[in-house]
């Protein structure tokens, strides 16, 4: 078994940059159905994207803190759902995510390469680096994009 390929910082940020556009393409024809839960215990597409919006600012704050403090201890972000009305049209949620993500990417683009290795202590994961946290946010994106694709094509 081979180790997964390590992507460059630029590739990582470009992958994160593409998320709102990929979501928009996925849900282009979903309409109001995007706000309907597939089952009682499963989030709708709108709720998933609302969750992605809700965690973006706390995640960016965590990354900023890692650049300002030496080895900060950080709480887990958890399953934040935010204050987004579950009936908010999916297009508005995607536009909101795009705006929030642009702010995150401006911050990440401004970092010196040495900042990517800044350490922190995550409450659940233990020792982490700024880059590993950016990779975790990107993996979180990809997990939700795949889940939304599955819901849309169900």
Keywords:
3-stranded mixed β-sheet; 6% strand; 154 residues; mainly alpha; globular; single chain; Four Helix Bundle (Hemerythrin (Met), subunit A); 5 helices
Account of the 3D structure:
By secondary structure, the protein is mainly alpha-helical. It has one domain: Four Helix Bundle (Hemerythrin (Met), subunit A) (Up-down Bundle), CATH 1.20.120.450. The protein is 55% helix and 6% strand. It has 5 helices and 3 strands, in the order αααβαββα. Helix 1 runs parallel beside helix 5, helix 2 (19-26) packs parallel to helix 5 and helix 3 runs antiparallel to helix 5. It is globular, with a radius of gyration of 16 Å.
User: CATH superfamily assignment?
Assistant: dinb family like domain
Task: Tell me the strand percentage band.
Answer: 5-15%
Number of helical segments with 4 or more residues:
5
Which regions have little confidence, pLDDT < 50, spanning 5+ residues?
Answer: none
Structural class: mainly alpha
CATH-scheme architecture: Up-down Bundle
Q: What layout of secondary structure does this protein have?
A:
Elements (H helix, E strand, L loop, with lengths): L8 H9 L1 H8 L18 H24 L4 E2 L15 H20 L9 E4 L3 E4 H23 L2
Parallel strand pairs: 1-2
Antiparallel strand pairs: 2-3
Give a concise summary.
This protein is mainly α and 154 residues long.
């Amino acid at each position: 078994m081979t180790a997964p390929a390590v992507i460059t910082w630029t590739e990582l940020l470009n992958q994160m940059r593409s998320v709102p556009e990929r979501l928009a393409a996925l849900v282009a024809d979903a309409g109001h159905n995007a706000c309907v839960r597939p089952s009682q215990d499963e989030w709708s597409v709108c709720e998933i994207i609302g969750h992605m919006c809700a965690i973006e600012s706390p995640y960016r704050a965590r990354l900023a803190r890692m650049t300002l403090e030496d080895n900060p201890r950080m709480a887990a972000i958890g399953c934040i759902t935010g204050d987004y009305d579950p009936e908010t049209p999916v297009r508005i949620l995607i536009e909101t995510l795009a705006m929030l993500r642009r702010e995150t990417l401006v911050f990440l683009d401004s970092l010196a390469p040495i900042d990517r290795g800044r350490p922190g202590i995550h409450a659940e994961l233990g020792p982490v680096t700024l880059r590993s946290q950016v990779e975790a946010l990107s993996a979180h994106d990809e997990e939700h994009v795949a889940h939304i694709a599955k819901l849309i094509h169900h």
